[in-house]
């Protein structure tokens, strides 16, 4: 496994020497380092979704102002669009900029090959579209997301976006052919299911076989009519940045790095 550790040289690191970094601090050091390492003037940037991506957008905005960067930002969700607007970053989209230089996004779990589970925030469809049109996908996360095998750490299942009228049929098909259980994700402050940015439902597929071949499973799932997209990001991420407890950042590339072509379809 290729792993590198970086110590922060900023003020934050002084605090980390004496106290354990909180999860939020761990997210922040990973997000800041990824933005500092990868973002350059002249790029089109995919802005990820979730709480770690909020911190990356924050750092992106700082650098945009301080360095007068010439960048354009493609959102991966409603939330990401709001972040771009809030920070007064230049907003673009895939219609204007169909090739993204780099997308920096969070993940719910990342295995040894950088296969990721994404969609904990239900934004997986646009996240995958933007990532698949990016030259590079870089994942940012705290150390609790770093695992050998998917399902080891993330217990909420693989999010799967489905057309609402087909959710029972798809649930039954997944459970019959791949085992486990696929549960309709319910909203917290609304009666009934959560509805994604694109008007669909989410099934969270749990108790899957942790030894399965994720590429095969992903392709199998994508054959089901009405199943729009999965939260399985296979052979897409080129690098993952994990904020650690001691204030360092662990950078991983896929174990089988020959297989990873960065963005799959560009
Ligand atoms: O895939 C996502 C949203 O659909 C997020 O990137 C993922 O859920 C991680 O979120 P957080 O950074 O809040 O832990």
TrEMBL record:
Enzyme class: isomerase
Catalytic activity: aldehydo-D-ribose 5-phosphate = D-ribulose 5-phosphate
One Gene Ontology term from the biological process aspect of the record: D-ribose metabolic process
PANTHER family membership: RIBOSE-5-PHOSPHATE ISOMERASE
Domain of life of the organism encoding this protein: Eukaryota
GO cellular component assignments: cytoplasm
EC number: 5.3.1.6
Keywords: Isomerase
Family to which the UniProt record says this protein belongs: Belongs to the ribose 5-phosphate isomerase family.
GO MF, any single term: ribose-5-phosphate isomerase activity
Protein name per the record: ribose-5-phosphate isomerase
Functional pathway: Carbohydrate degradation; pentose phosphate pathway; D-ribose 5-phosphate from D-ribulose 5-phosphate (non-oxidative stage): step 1/1
């Amino acid at each position: 496994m290729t792993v590198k550790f970086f110590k922060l040289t900023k003020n934050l690191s002084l605090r980390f020497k004496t106290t354990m970094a909180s999860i939020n601090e761990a997210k922040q050091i990973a997000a800041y380092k990824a933005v500092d390492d990868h973002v350059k003037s002249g790029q089109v940037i995919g802005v990820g979704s979730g709480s770690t991506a909020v911190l990356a957008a924050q750092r992106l905005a700082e650098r945009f102002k301080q360095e007068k960067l010439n960048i354009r930002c493609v959102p991966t969700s409603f939330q990401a669009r709001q972040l771009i607007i809030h920070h007064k970053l230049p907003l673009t989209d895939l219609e204007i900029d169909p090739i993204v230089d780099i997308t920096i996004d969070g993940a719910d779990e990342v295995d040894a090959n950088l296969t990721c589970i994404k969609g904990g925030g239900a934004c997986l469809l646009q996240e995958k579209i933007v990532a698949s049109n990016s030259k590079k996908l870089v994942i940012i996360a705290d150390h609790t997301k770093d695992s050998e095998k998917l399902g080891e750490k993330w217990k909420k299942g693989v999010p799967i976006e489905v057309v609402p009228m087909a959710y029972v049929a798809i649930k039954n098909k997944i459970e019959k052919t791949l085992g486990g259980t696929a549960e309709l994700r319910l909203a917290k402050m609304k009666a009934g299911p959560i509805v994604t940015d694109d008007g669909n439902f989410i099934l969270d597929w749990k108790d899957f076989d942790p030894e399965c071949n994720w590429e095969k499973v992903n392709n199998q799932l994508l054959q089901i009519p009405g199943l729009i997209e999965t939260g399985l990001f296979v052979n897409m991420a080129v690098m993952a940045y994990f904020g650690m407890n001691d204030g360092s950042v662990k950078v991983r590339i896929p174990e089988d790095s020959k297989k990873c072509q960065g963005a799959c379809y560009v």
